[in-house]
Structure formats: C-alpha cells, structure tokens
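A reminder from the course coordinator: this example appears on the midterm review sheet, so study it carefully.

Given structure:
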C-alpha cells in the first residue's frame, strides 16, 4: 500500500509556502500574503487562537496567504458576501435539486462495476483473481489500468502489457487502488455530447480534485497513528461526488430552451450549494459503506467531533479545504475547516503547510498519471 502513495508523494519534505493557484479573484479569497511572516513553531497553531482573535492567522502565515474575509464582514447591508448565493442562484439551485430528484441516477444507472471495484479495494479479503477478473472484464477499465501502470509515475524499464502483469509489477494493493481510481472516473465523466461540450473540463477538474484529495488524505493518515489510509483514500475519492452528479442535472437544465448560458463562477457556487445533499442521497442509493456516506454528508459541517472515528473525515476535510482556500467563494469556510480539522488531527501550522505541499505534489502526479487537467 505504501508504494502506491509513495509514488504520489515523492518526498516528505515541505516546500516553501506559496499560492497553489493564481491569486484569488476577489477580496473573499485567501490571498497570497506579500512578505509572509514565518509560521509559528510546533504547537503555536495547534492552540489555534491568536491574540488578535483570528484562529486562522498562524495557518495563513504558514500557508503564505491572508486570512479570508468572513461572510458579512465589511459588506454593505444587503450585499451578497462570499459563500452566499444571490436570489437567481438560489432559484437555480432549487431547480437543480428538483431535476436531480426527478431524474436521479438510480442503482441501475450507477457505475456498478466502479462501485464493486471501490468496495473490493476497501475489503481486507480482496483477492488477486477477483481483481484481475473484474478489471479484465471491462475493456475500458483494463485499458485505463494499463495506461496508468505505464505512465511516467509508475512505469519501470519494461512496458506492462497485461492486467496480470500489472498486478505482478505493482502488487495487488496498488493495482486495486489504480483500478478503483480508473473505475471512479466514470463518476466524473460526462454522459452526453452536450454535457461534454459544455462541461467536459469541469468533469476532468472534479476528477483531478477527487484523486488529489484521496492521495493527500491517505498519505496524511499513513503518517499518523489512528485512521485508516484505505478509508481516507476512498473517502477522498467520493466525498464531493455530488458535484459531478449535480453537474449532470445542471447541464440538462442549461440545455432547456430559453436558459441563458451559465457563467463558470455561478456553476461553481450552485454546485457547491447542492453537492452535499446530492452526494449524500447518491451514496445511500448506491449502498456505499456507511463511513463513506458520513464523510460525504458531514465534511462541510461547521463542527465535526475530534473523536477517533472521524479521523479519516478530518483528513479528507483538511485536504479538501486546503484546495478550496484559494477559491474566493469558498475561502472563509475552508479556513474554518482547516482550523478545526488540524486541531482534531493534532497538526500545527508547520504540519499543515507540509500537507499543503504534498497536495500540490500529488496534484502534479495525478495530472501525469491520469492525464487530467486540474483546471475547471
Ligand atoms: Fe465538499
């Protein structure tokens, strides 16, 4: 298992902090800090609270960003602040949920092979023969596994030509995870030509994000006592799947006559608003393991208990929030999640900076291994 993650995380050393994405689009984003002060030492941020009352301050310094503006902070009365939807966006979100509930992908329409694979990967009783049989039964899946196994991130001196050879080369656990990732890709794939034309890059971006968070959360749990990296990996893969499912309903609504083209920022905000609800319902309908459903449903809860049973949830939540931090609309919520989950995982600001650096490294490896662009 460790080898799979080792390939996604070349080194454990931290890199200097800096923005993972271009500077934010508005004052709501966590902005790269000019002349960022050095982070607090170990223990400084684990306490969380700063004398100035901003619990995110030490993390902001460590990550090289400014603390995002809280919703309502400095807004004119009646203005729509970061993290909030205006009235037309709220109406669109309501229409989207209505469309999803009328046309939801049922179990028959769900990617059953992908889900069987994901469950098999999580099973301690996974068998080589069953894994090879499942992968080999699906040409697209077999091709995907071979492509990944021969990618720069994985390949050795000789080309891998068969699924069985991939198992021999990489080991059952690694092939299982690669297969799970390739299988999960169908969850992030547009189904219709119109969806592909309108939102293809966004599906790819969601897939890239899921794999990056999965890899980051798994690596984080591997480095700590408590928490299971296999659960964290699958949790990261599927915690935001509601966005890709909701995008299908949004694409269908956008195709209706008279609907004006949707601005990308509006799509982001509406997907974010509905994704926990949509994802939770899909998780239940697809009979995914309960721990995965809990992660999908609770990862944006304002408060998540620090109990050991939520260790994987906090790992996924922290990694997702570090990616969200540079998005203006999501920055304030992400900052709160970082503070709380870091505290639950006993990570100080330096440790969170290391997680952030590893996430960026993982993002590059995912882009290389799976040929996906992190862009929207
Ligand atoms: Fe989310």
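Designed residues:
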């Amino acid at each position: 298992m460790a080898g799979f993650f080792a390939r996604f995380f070349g080194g454990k050393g931290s890199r200097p902090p800096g923005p993972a994405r271009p500077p934010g689009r508005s004052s709501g984003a966590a902005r790269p800090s000019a002349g960022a002060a050095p982070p607090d030492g170990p223990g400084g941020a684990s306490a969380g609270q700063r004398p100035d009352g901003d619990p995110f301050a030490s993390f902001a310094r460590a990550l090289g960003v400014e603390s995002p503006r809280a919703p309502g902070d400095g807004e004119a009365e009646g203005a729509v602040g970061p993290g909030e939807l205006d009235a037309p966006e709220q109406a669109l979100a309501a229409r989207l949920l209505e469309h999803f509930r009328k046309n939801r992908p049922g179990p028959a329409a769900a990617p059953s092979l992908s889900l069987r694979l994901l469950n098999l990967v999580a099973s301690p009783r996974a068998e080589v023969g069953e894994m090879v049989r499942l992968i080999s039964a699906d040409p697209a899946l077999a091709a995907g596994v071979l492509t990944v196994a021969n990618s720069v991130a994985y390949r050795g001196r000789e080309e891998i030509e068969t699924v069985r050879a991939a198992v021999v080369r990489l080991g059952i656990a690694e092939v299982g995870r690669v297969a799970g990732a390739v299988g999960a890709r169908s969850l992030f794939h547009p189904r219709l030509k119109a969806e592909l034309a309108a939102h293809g890059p966004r599906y790819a971006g969601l897939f890239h994000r899921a794999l990056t968070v999965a890899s980051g959360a798994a690596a984080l749990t591997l480095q700590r006592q408590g928490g299971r990296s296999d659960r964290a990996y699958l949790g990261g893969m599927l915690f935001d799947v509601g966005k890709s499912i909701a995008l299908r309903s949004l694409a269908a609504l956008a195709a209706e006559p008279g609907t004006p083209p949707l601005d990308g920022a509006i799509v982001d905000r509406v997907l974010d608003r509905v994704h926990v609800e949509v994802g939770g319902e899909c998780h239940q309908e697809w009979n995914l393991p309960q721990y995965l459903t809990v992660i999908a449903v609770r990862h944006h809860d304002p408060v998540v208990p620090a109990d050991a049973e939520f260790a994987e949830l906090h790992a996924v939540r922290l990694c997702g929030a570090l990616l969200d931090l540079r998005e203006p609309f999501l920055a304030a919520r992400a900052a709160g999640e970082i503070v709380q989950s870091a505290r639950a995982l006993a990570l100080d600001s330096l440790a969170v900076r290391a997680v952030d650096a590893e996430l960026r490294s993982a993002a590059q490896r995912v882009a290389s291994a799976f040929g996906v662009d992190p862009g929207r």
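The chain has one domain: 85-370. Residues 226 and 308 are 7 Å apart (CA to CA).
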